[in-house]
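Hi U.,

Before I forget, here's the chain from the pilot set. I'm dumping it here mostly so it's searchable later in email.
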Amino acid sequence: MEKKVFLLPFASVILLLHYWVTCLTLAVSLTNLSDEYALLALKAHITYDSQGILATNWSSTTSYCNWFGVSCNAHHGRLTALNLSNMGLEGTIPPQVSNLSFLASLDLSDNYFHASLPNEIGNCRQLRQLYFFNNELTGSIPQSLGNLSKLEESYLDSNHLTGDIPEEMSNLLSLKILSLFVNNLTGSIPSGIFNISLSKLEELYLGVNNLAGGIPRGMGNLLNLKMLSLVSNRLQGPIPEEIFNISSLQMIDFTNNSLSGNLPIAICNHLPKLQQLILSSNQLSAQLPPNLSLCGQLQVLSSLSKNKFTGSIPIEIGNLPMLEEIYLGRNSLTGTIPPSFGNLSALKVLDLQENNIQGNIPKELGCLLSLQNLSLISNDLRGIVPEAIFNISKLQSISLADNHLSGNLPSSIGAWLPNLLQLHIGGNEFSGVIPRSISNISKLISLDLSYNFFTSYVPKDLGNLRSLQHLGFGSNYLTYEHSTSELSFLTSLTKCKSLRRLWIQDNPLKGHFPNSFGNLSVSLESIDASSCQIKGVIPTEIGNLSNLMALNLGDNELTGMIPTTLGQLQKLQQLIISGNRIHGSIPNDLCHSENLGSLLLSSNELSGPVPSCFGNLTALQQLFLDSNALASQITSSLWSLGGILYLNLSSNFLNGNLPLEIGNMKTIIKLDLSKNQFSGYIPSSVGQLQNLVELSLSKNNLQGPIPLKFGDVVSLESLDLSWNNLSGTIPQSLEALIYLKHLNVSFNKRQGEIRNGGPFVNFTAKSFISNEALCGAPRFQVMACKKVTTRKSTKAKSLLLKCVLPTIASTIIILALIILLIRRQKRLDIPIQVDSSLPTTYRKISHQELLHATNYFSEGNLIGKGSMGTVYKGVLFDGLTAAIKVFNLEFLGSFKGFEAECEVMRNIRHRNLIKIISSCSNLGFKALVLEFMPNRSLERWLYSHNYCLDLIQRLNIMIDVASALEYLHHDYSNPVVHCDLKPNNVLLDEDRVAHVGDFGIAKLLPGSESRQQTKTLGPIGYMAPEYGSEGIVSTSDVYSNGIMLLEVFARKKPTDEMFVGDPTLKSWVESLASTVMEFVDTNLLDKEDEHFAIKENCVLCIMALALECTAESPEDRINMRDVVARLKKIRIKLLM
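Structure:
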């Protein structure tokens, strides 16, 4: 009994212990189960698993600790790390992730997670590493992230996060790395997050966002900071000096902002570890501090390129022994290149291009044995290039173009440059012969010797340059070897199978094309052999060059006939054979080159008819057949070229009547049919050529009157009808041609009065010489016009003038004064009615308020002027700054333009469309009150020297434009076609966000109709080809958008002089499509840029998209929804 009593307490302890163990086991099981449930919730939110791993591996049949990507603690079995990076997962991040209470590392990077980050993420209090980069997350950064007090690394870069950077980030006491790179964050950089609580921060990446304002001085408190990148934001103001006191800094990158001011004189006093100083593309000014030499570890100095630095280059920079890269290009630096640069034994890149540096190239540069890239383009350098530079065997690129360098190239130039890929010395004053040894530089890809004074022969061994893609030695004094009449160097070049561009123009070559000409590289895209005194015939073998896009053989001494084999060149866009002695007829085979945009056959001895098949060349924009011996009537199909811009058939023997179909050439700018044998009447359909600027019909046999419809050709600047048999009076309608500067109707049979209104006030007697019975003002040197009077009426007129008229006049004046006083009183009391075409929600603005807002429409408030109206800046009574567009009611179509803008803009709402505030309208006054855009037009930013847009800024703007068109075409209830898209109609707000405006000729398509015929013409150069034949307008916006893409990134207007008589902007880019540096704006790409390859590829993608937009057939064009998607993908790629 006693024994049992003794065992009872012991049994109780055993039972209690068993109970505790059971409870503890259950608790552990339940907590482990919460981890599993959190993982299953994540799996449920994944909509696509490209590898199918989670679907098969994450199964309840096995412990979640054995699941793919999961790591658990060995002691308590709780999940501590989850890594699902780079698995191609799509979906969202569920709030249940917060239940992973022991989670220390979460890596979901390189996937396609979208939507917002759950606010509950802040409950993962053990989290030390957070990797969400390279996803598609949106929304703002959760404030709850500030609760993660143990967080050491946070990577949220390369997403679509928006909003401000939360102030709560200052609570992250353990944070070492913060990367928010490549998002859409806005607002300013919060100064509060840089207090002493972030003292452990080592790396900070806030680049490629939309952050504005200044750089907080508090950044100077980050005493352990090593890497600091604020690249590509909208930061302004000076760089705080406190940043240059952080002695641990290794990299500073503030590229592509609007930072201003000077660099501190003592910039490097406290930066002993600095390796990279990158401040390019800002507005920094003044001189470079000599103190830079104290940054002894500096390897990359790119603080100066694309800024406004002046003065000379400090010689102290030559004391930086570890310096590898110097980018000081595109400033206003003066002085000379410091000889001390020769001490930089580690230097690989020296870029001083586009400055005002003078003097000689110092011989000490020849000591830079590690140098790979030397760029001194566009300076004022003179003298001889030190021969030692051509002995640096590691050199890959030598760019010395556009200076005043002289002397001969060393005869041994090819002996010591085994790695050279690019030699550009064009635009200098080099002379002597081209050394034969240049053919030994076997890796050479691009050789440009153009615009110098080289003489003698072209080396016959250039064919040894088997990798050569671009060869240019135009504009020199090179000739052929007299031992043969053939241009033998061309035979040698047949071994260069990668050759794409051959530019040898403006040399006295004087030889003949060899038969081997057709054996040149099939990769050849462009040949310019103009003005070379080349003799003989064009080889028929030229038809073998199947990829040729541009062929210029103009201004030579070629004879024979046009080879029919040219018709085999299906990709040919430009053919120039003008200025030769070619005879025979124009072969119909040319019509097989359906992509021809420019055909120039002027000044030859061609005869026969104009081929009727020319009407099938729908891409043709320039056709010059003048100064030949062409005869016969013009085939009617020629007048169907709706996309033609320039047509010159002058100085031939063409005859017949001008048909009404001439009015079909809706886009034509210049038409010259002079010095032919045309007869009959001038067709009134000429009045339909709304874009015509120059028209010459002189020296023909035309008769009859000048059509009244000429007054409708509103763009006309020059009209020559001289030396015909035209009769009748000069129509009054010509007074409406406000742009007409030159008029010649001499040597005709005109009669009647010479007009005095409109442009006639500027014409002289030279415009009207030798007509039958013209009369007018004495300055025209014609007889005065007679006044018709009768004797019977003289007395009555006298009585009327003396008695009756004064009485009537007095009565009218009194009545008029009374009416004016009444109206003035009413005007002060009753505001002018807001146009009824706008919704009643728009605020009412009176004419009186607009007068006050614009200081009575003063010149000081003027911000823009066009044919349809004038735009003023004004401040309304409520203090709002607005743009007031006052329509010119004397301009034909202004009423319709006002109605069109009201109709289109009254309901549309989009962040990238100009917002209408109100309107003001009565019988004699019509105005729109619009949102004011302080940064004015895109055109101003593209072509003004005071402004600069970098690559990402231009891409963002074009995404904005495309988004606006996407909304108009696809998301508005009735599709809207803008019809007038061009840089001048794209306005930028204070944040440089683009807004499309000016809907004066827009079309509102009824119902769901997305395609409609129109006769409305868009802007010259941006018009789709189908406009001329009343084409489909809904895709014409896409075409205009494509032209704008080309213009924005090439910084070339489609109406530029280089596209008159040469390729169009589109065909020019197409011909150079794979060589970005040949057409892209030089401010956008820099070969020394470490991200050059990525940027180059992105530009190529943009150009490819632009060419898809500008497909000839409307059906082949991409739609704007796809354009927006493609551009955004390019932006992501660019910002990675």
